[in-house]
């Protein structure tokens, strides 16, 4: 289990570093092209969730994050040894949750910066990527686990 916590800490470090570099080098709302018409960097302060839903509801995000972290750590400790895929998904979810709550506690908002130019999509950060990957891996784990259980019944 220790390795999965280290992995989560690594992702949190990358998330916080990219946010630091963004705030230190890009003005608020400034756009810096990385790959024209594909990807740019834009410093944005987000007080809500994706698409700025629940904007300004910091206590809601604090409560949800505490619940998520407690549940993820519990599952990682209790069931993580059963599946590498489950442990990996939980590590990503843990890192993403903590990465964004650090911003909410420090600044009162989340620093977002990654902007996809080819699609109308919210600007996001490394913690958001970690959460998305973690949820996708969790869905895959549940699907594979169900398939395994079905095979065992036959």
Cross-sheet strand order for the largest sheet: 1-2-3
Overall body shape? globular
- Note the gap between the termini: 33 Å
Structural class designation: alpha+beta
The biggest beta sheet, please? 3 strands, antiparallel
Beta-strand percentage range: 5-15%
Estimate percent helicity.
55-70%
Weakly predicted, low-confidence segments: none
* Strands, total number: 3
Give the arrangement of secondary structure elements.
Elements: H1 2-25, E1 31-35, E2 39-46, H2 58-79, H3 84-107, E3 110-116, H4 126-153
Antiparallel strand pairs: 1-2, 2-3
Task: Considering the chains and any ligands shown, give keywords for the structure.
64% helix, globular, 154 residues, 3 strands
What do these coordinates show?
The protein has one domain (2-153). The chain is 64% helix and 13% strand. The two termini are 33 Å apart. The chain is α+β, with helices and mostly antiparallel strands and 154 residues long. It has a three-stranded antiparallel sheet with strand order 1-2-3. It has helices spanning 2-25, 58-79, 84-107, 126-153, and strands at 31-35, 39-46, 110-116. The mean pLDDT is 92. The chain is globular.
What is the gist of this entry?
The protein is of the alpha+beta class. The protein has helices at residues 2-25, 58-79, 84-107, 126-153, and strands spanning 31-35, 39-46, 110-116.
């Amino acid at each position: 289990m220790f390795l999965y916590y280290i992995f989560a800490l690594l992702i949190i470090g990358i998330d916080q570093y990219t946010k630091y570099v963004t705030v230190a080098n890009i003005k608020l709302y400034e756009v810096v092209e990385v790959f024209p018409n594909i990807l740019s960097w834009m410093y944005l302060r987000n007080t809500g969730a994706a698409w700025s839903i629940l904007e300004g509801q910091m206590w809601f995000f604090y409560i949800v994050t505490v619940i998520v972290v407690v549940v993820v750590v519990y599952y990682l400790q209790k069931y993580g040894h059963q599946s590498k895929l489950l442990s990996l998904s939980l590590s990503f979810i843990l890192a993403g949750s903590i990465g964004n709550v650090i911003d909410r506690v420090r600044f009162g908002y989340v620093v977002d910066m990654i902007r996809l130019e080819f699609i109308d999509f919210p600007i996001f950060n490394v913690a958001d990527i970690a959460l998305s990957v973690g949820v996708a891996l969790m869905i895959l784990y549940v699907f594979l686990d169900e398939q395994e259980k079905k095979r065992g019944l036959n």
